[in-house]
């Protein structure tokens, strides 16, 4: 990765330049977010810019390796100690919603005969943490750029709907307006993307003058869900690698390279190991008294790198094909979203939180 060709560097530079306005617009409109803006912008540009010539090498590099690097830096935003201490209350709900979403996604993928990778990406995106989970899973399963773009677009749609209607739904259902714990857990478990979780929780705080109590609770729950990236990616890489090896499949990644079936490297991807290491470093450093604000630049870098990667994925995607084949993925995404919402409410009620 260090010995980059000129073509790769030029492609990286182009992606980073085009990603800047997407990143800034994402900060300006957090309910949409930089990644989805970047994907849409990339797909629009791709309509008019079909022959990318020598730059294609750098664009492919960005969509694959910069995406993995973004996941590594994402680990610096996870203080495992704080998450375990404050997120334990929501753990049964998190486990339950993740389980139901993954099972439903798998069943519907089989019934609708949807491509494996798309079904997996929608399942992990719905159940864990939206775009970040998709970003971590895509390299593990060798997903194509169009599969990633379609999955993130579907997850984004339901995130926006949730961010808009959940505060009203919370009022109708009678969530406590004296503190933000109940709604914070609800939004943190039933909405998967950070920007949409933040939008819904902040709206509830503003509605009832709760300061940032709902937002703090929702963010903690969301970070606790993010930890599920680790076991999910490891299990997927092992299972899929073993299955491909047993079946003698020759799946290809988005660069056209054949997969080699099961291997230790595929079962425990390097970037996932570094993601775990980054989380451990953050946890130990904060425990030793290091100011957690020190890690904010790395968290922001992770966000920008994800925007860069999504831009590259958009450039490699055919928007017409994605729209034409979007019916089945949309149905799976909607089913997962509704089931997570209902189960979150049921479990909260049974646990006496709501």
UniProtKB/TrEMBL annotation:
Q: Which InterPro entries match?
A: UPF0324_pro
Q: Is Cell membrane a UniProt keyword of this protein?
A: yes
Residue ranges of the TM segments: 7-25, 31-49, 65-85, 91-108, 120-142, 148-169, 271-290, 302-323, 330-351
Tell me what topology the record assigns in the membrane. Multi-pass membrane protein
Q: Where in the cell is it found?
A: Cell membrane
Q: Which UniProt keywords apply?
A: Cell membrane, Membrane, Transmembrane, Transmembrane helix
The protein's predominant localisation is membrane
Q: Name one GO cellular component term.
A: plasma membrane
Q: Which domain of life is it from?
A: Archaea
Full protein name: Conserved hypothetical integral membrane protein
